[in-house]
Amino acid sequence: MCVAGSEARGFTLMELLVVLVIAGLAASLIGPGFQRMLPGVGLETEARTLAAMLRHARSQAILSGQPVSIGEDAESGGLRLSYREAPYIPRKGIEVKLEGGPASGDLGSGAAQILFFPPGDSSGGSLTLKMGDDKSRVIQVDWLSGRVLRTTEEAQAQLKMEREKVEKARARDKERRRDRTPEMFNEEY
């Protein structure tokens, strides 16, 4: 109850309705944008999970003293670790492609694999995760160190171009050194 002449505290019904309408409009605008972000979050989560699985496989090879392989499982469409019974099945809508490194060999069926050896090195290789046409992640396994790195296909292409430039520069430098005569070398120094 309100006594005549006293100040009333609180909100009117009209003020509450205006706030609810504004909040509803904001939610309707933010919702679709948030849903567009969710597939990318799912792809990133899957990439982190697979990178952790590869790191675990490397650790298992070091601890057990036995090589550990990761290969494609034809029956399930997932990935199979040599020391596990059940294959790893990626999330629905995510395509995983495994490429073995230079020393990976095959599983007998011609399927690619990545091997981790007891000293910690590996055969090298990569896992490419794709979701639709526009989103992808690459997990690269270094053959020398066995290190597992996550990146994108665009970054992989950029890195490949930079490596090619370095190789071309090395080849040019080697060619220049080969063409030098002893007299030219003495003149330089």
TrEMBL record:
Topology within the bilayer: Single-pass membrane protein
Pfam families referenced in this protein's UniProt entry, alphabetically: GspH, N_methyl
Source organism, top-level taxon: Bacteria
Transmembrane segments annotated in the record for this chain: 12-30
Region annotation (Disordered) ranges: 160-189
Record carries keyword Cell membrane: yes
Compositionally biased intervals (Basic and acidic residues): 160-182
UniProt key word Cell membrane: yes
InterPro entries in UniProt: N_methyl_site, T2SS_GspH
Keyword terms, alphabetized: Cell inner membrane, Cell membrane, Membrane, Methylation, Transmembrane, Transmembrane helix
Ranges of residues in domain General secretion pathway GspH: 46-143
Subcellular location, record wording: Cell inner membrane
Designated name of the protein: GspH/FimT family pseudopilin
